[in-house]
Specification:
- Helix content is 48%, strand content 10%.
- The protein has a five-stranded parallel sheet with strand order 2-1-3-4-5, with helices on both faces.
- It is built from 26 helices and 14 strands.
- It is globular and about 80 Å long.
- With 631 residues, the protein is an alpha/beta fold.
- The protein has helices at 6-16, 25-31, 50-61, 72-81, 89-114, 131-144, 159-171, 187-203, 223-227, 241-253, 268-274, 294-297, 315-324, 341-354, 375-389, 394-401, 407-422, 443-456, 501-510, 517-527, 531-543, 548-553, 563-573, 577-589, 595-603, 620-630; strands at residues 119-123, 148-151, 174-179, 207-213, 233-235, 277-279, 282-284, 330-334, 358-363, 427-432, 466-472, 492-495, 607-609, 615-617.
- It has four domains: 6-113; 116-253, Toll/interleukin-1 receptor homology (TIR) domain (Rossmann fold, 3-Layer(aba) Sandwich), CATH 3.40.50; 315-495, Rossmann fold; 501-630, no CATH class.
Length: 631
């Protein structure tokens, strides 16, 4: 087998055959509960007997490595060992396997690394310091050490640029990401890290090596979810640059791991640390494209003041709080991308928490793709998540999962017999990015299950203990086509709209009134009341001390205030020719016959429909930018 001698492999196999965890898939799943092993649960394969289960697991884990380059198999053996007491012989047999197998696999990785030129992708924020200086130094240094580096410095933005970035990451052995207060707000840095993480899960490369530039606080969501488990190199000033280069090189060679571990600091520190601009003594932080639910959910004491002076409360806020205060409700929040759906959901959830509810927050966007392989695996993951949040022994989930019931009935039984029966307070199940299941083969069954729980409230009072709130961007019929089984046509539905002129006027006042009435009208024309873009515009006006005329001049420029946001759309369109063709038709003819493409583009926040039925870009900014690169 790769990396192991025949003798060592057989010795390992014989010991694993003694382990009770290989008696069934459900027992083996428990070993993969820990966060570092969770992405590799595809090693749990359907097998007719214990021998096949052991062989398939070894075949799956042997070639794989963690994000920091460590081989997975020793970690699995460690987790397996820890399930036995020191009074059991298997504890010591497994213990004796760990170091020899780790040494053999590391040696194999070192040999492979010396036999080929390694490719390195450097992800950073362009036109920002010290980001650019450190990126250029690392490029020169690593090239001198025989590495082949790619740095995005001269490519012109466009579809060719998008494809080149995609291909370079896919071909790289390492992705070095420079994290600064500027870069961690970049949508493109996030997309590069996200794609590298996906590639690593599918192919084992590239390995991500973070470098923090003068910043040791928590990272914004969802960047934090990708990078928090990884150790990093720390750069504080120019004198650290050569040292960082050597640390990165040694990490690539496997000589040492990066030295720093992500600190567990309250997320509120992130806002305090990166806030440089003030209006009337109040800090103005550049808006993040993704609201961080963990600002609430991980807050010490469970409470964080969410009354931001720049948050515009809409009618939907009041309705959601009211709905989550009732017994047994189902709420759907629907709006395109970056309309404030998650922000609305989390504020409603926090209000419910203050009223005494227990909160189960599930962001489907962050669920590892291995959990989306089947309905059984997905519902098992969801049950474990619920059990962990409500402090229920995970073995309760495993006991129910060994029953002959189907997966939906197992989860329903777990909720009834364990979660709801023992609950002394109301429960809120908050599901963000529910349409992540759009491409899952079991999506219809899952949403039908949510509808079935709604129906149960009519005859089983236990189900009135749980309120469900879901966030979606796409049209419900794409998620489930049977209206009689759909959870989206029952309960309350909240559709978010763009800001109107009065709300933009309100935001203008809260930012110190940088714009006059004529300029506010022009802002509505350019940005269409888009909540994120409006906030970004006000931030740029104040932070960069520019006029409205200057902002408009650079609106679609590669160095303009919306550059990262606009680039992200090109990135997301890179492998979707059907959507590109639909956009080209809309940009020239203001119509399109592809209903599926129209729905997906509307959900992405790129389109709107006029009163006379024409399809238009959501705002003038998008129209100018897309015409520039797609026509």
């Amino acid at each position: 087998m790769p990396g192991l001698s025949h003798e060592l492999y057989n010795h390992c196999r014989n010991i694993l055959l003694k382990c009770r965890e290989f008696d069934s898939n459900s027992l083996l799943r428990v070993v993969f509960i820990i966060d570092e092993l969770a992405p590799f649960n595809d090693a749990i394969a359907e097998a007719e007997n214990k021998k096949d289960r052991v062989d398939l697991c070894l075949a799956s884990l042997l070639p794989k490595s963690l994000k920091d380059g460590r081989p997975v198999l020793p970690l699995f053996l460690t987790a397996l060992r820890d399930r036995y007491s020191e009074a059991e012989a298997l504890y010591y047999e497994l213990e004796g396997l760990i170091d020899p197998i780790r040494a053999a696999l590391v040696h194999q990785a070192d040999q492979s690394a010396t036999q080929q030129i390694q490719q390195v992708f450097i992800s950073y924020k362009r036109n920002a310091e010290p980001d650019e200086s450190v990126a250029m130094y690392l490029t020169r240094f690593l090239n001198a050490q025989g590495k082949q580096t790619f740095i995005d410095q001269k490519l012109k933005v466009g579809m060719d640029w998008v494809n080149e970035i995609h291909d370079q990451i896919a071909q790289s052995d390492f992705l070095v990401v420079l994290l600064s207060p500027d870069s961690m707000k970049s949508d493109m840095v996030l997309e590069e890290v996200k794609f590298a993480d996906l590639q690593w899960r599918e192919t084992g490369r590239p390995r991500i090596l973070p470098v923090r530039l003068g910043y040791e606080g928590p990272l914004p969501y969802p960047l934090d979810d990708y990078l928090r488990p990884l150790q990093y190199a720390l750069w504080l000033n120019e004198t650290d640059t050569p040292n960082v280069g050597h640390r990165i090189l040694n990490a690539m060679k496997g000589i040492e791991t990066l030295p720093q571990t992500s600190s567990v600091l309250p997320k509120t520190m992130m806002w305090q640390t990166v806030s440089k601009t003030n209006v009337g003594g109040r800090p103005i932080v550049e808006p993040y494209s993704n609201f961080d639910p963990w600002l609430i959910l991980e807050a010490p004491g469970g409470l964080v003041d969410l009354e931001s002076p720049f948050y515009i409360e809409r009618r939907a806020d009041i309705r959601l709080k009211r709905e989550l205060s009732k017994a047994g409700t189902t709420t759907t929040i629907r709006a395109p991308r970056q309309m404030g759906k998650t922000s609305l959901l989390v504020r409603g959830v926090e209000h419910a928490r203050q009223k005494g509810s227990s909160i189960i927050f599930c962001d489907f966007q962050m669920i590892d793709s291995t959990y989306l392989q089947s309905l059984d695996v997905f519902l098992y993951y969801l049950a474990l998540n619920i059990a962990t949040t409500l402090k229920i022994d995970p073995e309760e989930v495993d006991r129910i999962w060994q029953s002959p019931l189907g997966p939906p009935d197992r989860l329903t039984q777990f909720l009834e017999d364990r979660a709801l029966k023992q609950a002394t307070n109301p429960i809120v199940l908050a599901i963000d990015e529910a349409d992540r299941l759009f491409e899952a083969s079991f999506r219809q069954q899952f949403f039908a299950l949510i509808r079935a729980w709604f129906t149960k409230r009519g005859f089983n009072p236990l189900w009135k203990k749980i309120n469900i709130a879901m966030v979606i961007s796409t049209h419900p019929f794409l998620l489930i086509d049977d209206i009689n089984q759909s959870p989206f046509n029952v309960g309350l539905r909240l559709d978010l709209e763009d800001f109107d002129l009065d709300q933009v006027r309100d935001l203008n006042e809260r930012h110190g009134a940088p714009l006059n009435e004529t300029e506010l009208l022009n802002m509505m024309t350019l940005l269409g009341g888009h909540p994120y873009l409006v906030r970004q515009a006000f931030y740029s006006l104040i932070d960069e001390e520019i006029t409205w005329v200057e902002l408009v001049k650079d609106a679609t420029a590669e160095t303009g205030p919306f550059k990262s946001h606009l680039r992200q759309y090109l990135w997301q369109l890179r492998d979707k020719p059907q959507l590109i063709q639909a956009l080209q038709t809309i940009l020239t003819q203001q119509t399109c016959s592809d209903d599926t493409a129209l729905t997906r583009l509307s959900a992405a926040g790129l389109l709107r429909q006029s009163e006379d039925g024409r399809y238009l870009c959501r705002c003038q900014l998008y129209e100018l930018y897309l015409k520039r690169f797609l026509l």
